[in-house]
Fold this sequence. Notes:
Blueprint: H1 8-13, E1 33-36, H2 45-61, E2 68-71, E3 75-76, H3 77-83, E4 91-94, E5 97-98, E6 113-117, E7 136-140, E8 159-163, E9 173-175, E10 189-191, E11 195-197, E12 213-215, H4 230-233
Parallel strand pairs: 1-2, 2-4, 3-5, 4-6, 6-7, 7-8, 8-10, 9-11, 10-12
Amino acid sequence: MENLEFGYWHIFEKEIAADKSLTYIRDYQGQEAIRLRITQLDMTAKEQNQIVNEWCKFLQNEKTSIKKIFIGTRISQKIFDAICMQNQLEGLWIKWGVYPNIRNISKLGNLKYLHLGGGSSIDDISMVESLSQLITFESSHLYKISDYGFLAKLHNIIDLLIEGDPFGSMKKVKIKTLKFLEEMPQIVRLSLSMTSIDDHSYLPILKIKSLKYLDLPNDKDLDKDVHHFEKFLN
C-alpha cells in the first residue's frame, strides 16, 4: 500500500510537474496522466473559449489513453460533462469551478481516485455512490453538502477527506453526522479539516479499525473526546 499520510493525490501531484500542463490539443501525445490548464489563461476571451471548445469536443468524441486528469484552474459545467465521457478514467482532481450538476460522474465507472473541489453551487453528490471502485474520495469547499451517509456503501474507500477552507476564508463545511464512518472500518486516512459536526460527536471515528492517519478540526465539540484520539495527534 502507498503511504497515504497526505492522501493519494499528494502522491499523484509529484508525477506531473506544473510546468508540464497541457493547454492546446497538440500538447496531448497519448499521456496516461495529464494536468490540464485550459482556463484562466493570459489571452483574449475568444482565444480561451476556442481552447475550451476544442478540448471539450476532443474529450466528448475521442477514445483516449488518459487515466488521470488533474485540473488546477476554473472549470465549467461544459468541461466537467466532457470529461465524464472519458469512461476509462481512474483519477479526477478538480480544484474549483462552476459545475453545479455532477450527475454525469456516474459514467466514470472505473474511477478510483476523486477530488471534487470548489464547487460551492453543487447541492447533490449522492450519485458518487455509484462509483463502486473508489479508493480515494475528497470533498473540498462543497458548502451545500452536509449528508455523507452514501459513502457507507463504498467499501473500497480507504482515503477520505471532507474539508472547508483552511487557507483563505477559514469557512467550515457542516456535516450532519459521522455515523456513516461506523460502516467504513477499512479507512486508512481520514481528514476532517475545517468541518463542524451537527450532532457534536466524533466517536464514530473510533470504529475505524484500519485508521492510521487522522486530521481533526479545531472544534470545541472535540474537547471532551480528544483523549480518545491521542495516538493520532502526537
